[in-house]
Amino acid sequence: MTTFFSNDSRIIITCNKRLSPYLQQEVTELGFTPVRTFSTGIELKGTINDCIKLNLNLRCASQVLYSLKEFQANGPDDVYKELSSIEWEKIIAADGHFSVTSNVDHPSIRTSLFANVKVKDAIVDRMRDNTGSRPNSGPELDKTVVHLFWREELAEIFLDTSGETLAKHGYRKIPGKAPMLEALAAATLVATKWDRVSPFINPMCGSSTIAIEAALLATNRAPGLFRANYAFMHIVGYDKGVYEHERQLLFAQIKDLSELTIIASDISADAINISKINAAAAGVEHYIEFTVGDFETTEVPEVEGGVVFFNPEYGERLGVEIELEKTYSRIGDFMKKKCKGYTGYIFTGNLDLAKKIGLKAKRRIEFYTSKIDCRLLEYELYSGTRRTDV
């Protein structure tokens, strides 16, 4: 093992907007201590070997970035100069392949493509001068990935140890209609009061991302079980044994919950067929009872402490919204009449529609998806009079 893989440096774990509290919880449970939490990620100290563990385990993350160097940059030439001083020949194989991504906000840069080319040129020129050969480069994120962060005069160069985003968990063979991103689905589940043992009911399930993520969470199946390639595998000095050890730990931590009850229903037979395929790919099809039918016919076991979770449409076109008002009202009736003793959740990007539910939300948890401000609304479901002053 090269010392490079065991060197401590700054690690930035990125995530989608408003997921950082749930990402922080995950990182802490893995034994790491966050240094800083911000709206789209967290910062900690660690090694590339630590990055391997993080990549395999995190449900709410997007990328795991390992810092190589911070520097002042007044323009592209400064970036080129600073990057030329890094020993890239000890990081990228001379006959390898790398790609460059960037997050740049500087007056000298009109397009991130220009910044990416400057980074690529610095790496290629340095390696050609020191090894006599140069690696190939391109947009693919399936080999070594270098990331430039540049704001005003402060710049930082990272190894993106993830490559393709971690926000997609790798089991979804068929996406279905308007699917929720897996990382977002996982975060919404962590935000609920579900104890991961009591019944979990998911009417209007669509392609069942919520139900599948619930089964994965309850049985402690990590995203790393479904993915075979990460960018860290293509860094010079990578020890496959470290990765294999971490992956074996993933298998060892799986729980067999024979009594787990997850029910997912949808009026579309096609959606349920897609759900079954995706659940099988995730290895949790035997934990989920899939049914075809209107959500009002969904079976709800008569127990205390379960969760019912809706992710209904929240259309913006007038005709659609008028029809959805009726749907949201029916959802409220269903939760009140059939889900007593449960905690109800509605994920929506339309709070006006949510008023039609007719129940008082105990919590309004902020989320964000597809540039839409969303809320996960929590309802304690017990006997009482319906209200409209939500």
From TrEMBL:
Pfam family, one: RlmL_1st
GO MF, one example: RNA binding
Signal peptide (residue range): none
Domain of life: Bacteria
Keywords, ordered alphabetically: Methyltransferase, RNA-binding, Transferase
Keyword RNA-binding: yes
Residue ranges of every copy of the THUMP domain listed in the record: 50-161
Matches recorded under SMART domains: THUMP
Protein name as annotated: RNA methyltransferase
Organism: Segetibacter aerophilus
Classification of source organism: Bacteria, Pseudomonadati, Bacteroidota, Chitinophagia, Chitinophagales
Chain's gene name: rlmL
